[in-house]
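User: Batch of two.

Assistant: Item 1 of 2:
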Amino acid sequence: MPATLPGAAVQLPASGHVHLWLAPEWSALSAERQQHYAAWLNEEERERWQRFKFAADRQRFLQARALVRSVLAAYLQQLPAELRFTRNQYGKPQLLQQAPAPIKFNLSHTQGLLALVVTLEAEVGVDVEAVTRNVETVALAERFFAPVEAALVKACSDGAQTDCFFRLWTLKEAYVKARGLGLQLGLDAFAFNFNAEQPQLSFVDASDDPACWSFMQLQHAERFRIALAVQAAGISNTQLTLLTPAF
């Protein structure tokens, strides 16, 4: 379902549905366009943007903020520069303006792709990773994952280890981001398994109720693995809508 942004109104997701916006990373951006999107930033965003040492990092940050502001502004039928944000005590961004129900969103990016997920009311998290990155899958799993997950990665054949690792990594990052607790929630405090139709979540210390969460995974353009965590039971891929911004 393509949309033209900014300017065109976009209908909010229905209750229990999820919108996932995917945007390829810009290869280059003219000085005029940079100035145009920079005008949307607030003072704190502008200071962060200017602190990046390398041009590629500045452009990636600017595109990420332009994506968030243009999409949310289209839902609210406001100008991107008018949006106001706050952060919770752990740093998770939140939108101050609200629709008939609170808009929840989360952003993730990796080299080559940005992902923005939007829901109403339910807390949500997204993580996107390029599976072509060269990573020490077993070493990282043993260092950061729950023991049962590290064992699952180690038990995979060489050809399947990378896919298993990134499936777990994106799920765990999406869940941590949805919880909005930052580093307070260790990656080894919970675990996923793939023995059912949807990934199943369990906890070391019973700090949350797995029944309150739904998880979705998808592959994009072969090289990207994406995971979503939604604090609402029973949401499936049939309630996920993929959208492409044009900005």
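Item 2 of 2:
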Amino acid sequence: MRTGGLRSVHPVLWAGWAALAAGAVLCVIGWYGVSGERYAERQLPYLASCSIPGAALIIAGAVLLTHGRGALAATRVEELYGLLVAAEPSDADEAGQPAGAPLAVSGDLLMVPGGTLWHRADCPLVAGKVEAVPVDAKLLAGGELGPCPICEPVEETD
């Protein structure tokens, strides 16, 4: 399932790397040409034909790589969402829960160190992760952690 998304983003990443490499080569050629000329008027053709287009290709390559990585991340999120939607019951399950009920129902709240969300213990994003730890009350009270949009936990009140 994952290979289809990777194949669609892969050409953008390759184009980004190719643009970066071509830009670097043009900048080196331009630098070499400029360094061999004593007078400014003889250096200008190297700047115009190599250095400036090389810098533009480097910028274009960086933009393509950023777009490719963003598209790759979006594809992974869509795959996760597709898996979660497929796991939800169509109308109601055997327990009588409506289809819009959250996937996770545990009352225990967990977080991943360095993360920005808190989750229910049976949330698919933290279930089975050994690094998931109970939510620190100071982080929760300080507003540094937000609720997970997938398992939709409610904040515990003491």
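The longest strand covers residues 117-120.
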